[in-house]
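Before anything else, study the sequence and fold tokens given here and see whether the fold suits the sequence. Record follows:
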Amino acid sequence: MAVQEARGDTDAEGVHEGGCTCGDCPHGAREGHRRAVAAFLRRRDEFAAGRGLPAAVAHSASASRQWVSEELTQRAEAVAEQSRAEGAARLARLWLRTVYAVWGAVVALLLGEALTAIGAGWTGARTAALLAALAVAGALTAACFLHRARGGALAPVIGEDNRISTSRTVAACWILFVGYAVLLLAARLAAASDHAGRDALISGLDLARGAGAVTVLAVVCGIAVLVRRVVGLRVLGQRLQKVSAHRPRAADLLTDDSGKGAFADIQYVAISAVALLFAAVRLARRPDRLPDLPWGLAVVVLISAATYLAGKYAEGGRPVILSVVRAREPGDLDGPIRTGDDIEIRGSGFVPPGAQTADRLSRMVVRIGAVDVHVPLVPVAGGFRNPTDHALTVPVPADVEPGAVDIQVVTAAGVATNRYPLQVAE
């Protein structure tokens, strides 16, 4: 196994050094995963070049294909196990990095206030801003510690598919910002000594002044809840295929499940970041009131949120079989489909987004009548020729009775295609 090979190399180097693969050592989990992937890729390319086959199966094309598929499946499971171990190790130490980032932001705020106070002098608003930042940082630090096994403060924005949710992250950023603004006003209100100053600070919380920011906050929070509901219903209705990731990544904010850039996500994050930056500048200029986000900018954010929601409704789709034909090797005679023949199933959506790895591809099944046939992995240099998103090839086993049968493809996400009729000749 690739994992055992990696561990064997590690033991030769020493314990708890650069190549350590102990489960509790983050650097070791990363190194073990890297070595397991490298070993798997080498083995896959060897099989693709026709090397490494046992003599007992080399004489038969079908037997060698089945043996290669089983061997790659076992090695892929080992790589997936290492990947999950690496993901758990990353999450276990992510909370500490989050704490460093939070308190680094507090230090940056302090330095910024100190530099801008030169000449102008230190004011009560600067003290209130620093106290509010300390309160938010303390709350985030406590959340990081309590959820340290699930990514710290990032745990609420990690979705059920183990990816960082774009909608939850945007909503969390707005919640933190508005919460910080309210704490800033509360600190200033506590330090105010005259009635006029206190009345002015209280009036700064009037809805008329912060209507734009409050509206945006309400919409992005509603979008976060609605998107979770929409995705859940579409998955249960088999209109969307979801495969869990081995670990969350920052790139999840801007990409779809397959790792490709998603327009709806990118524009939502970009416009929300611009609006947040504008609101932060307004708060810095007028720390005695909620940031008055202009309605023009607020409407732009709302349009961006609507586009993101529409993208969630439009993505995905159920896999479908369009046709089934007999797979013919060069030189074979044409004829009907019989048991023992290979059939090529053509359609769309056979490989869900995020299921391009070998361990996920090996989970695909073709149901021929009452017989479940696992789709064999056919390696080529740099990837796999079978299965693909639009076509896959499987043999018709001898257990299939001649006559009319139905064919279905069950993807790695557990979604079954439509039934396609097939006539198996005697």
User: Anything to note?
Assistant: The first helix runs from residue 2 to 13. DSSP finds eleven helices and nine strands in the chain. The two ends are 42 Å apart (CA to CA).
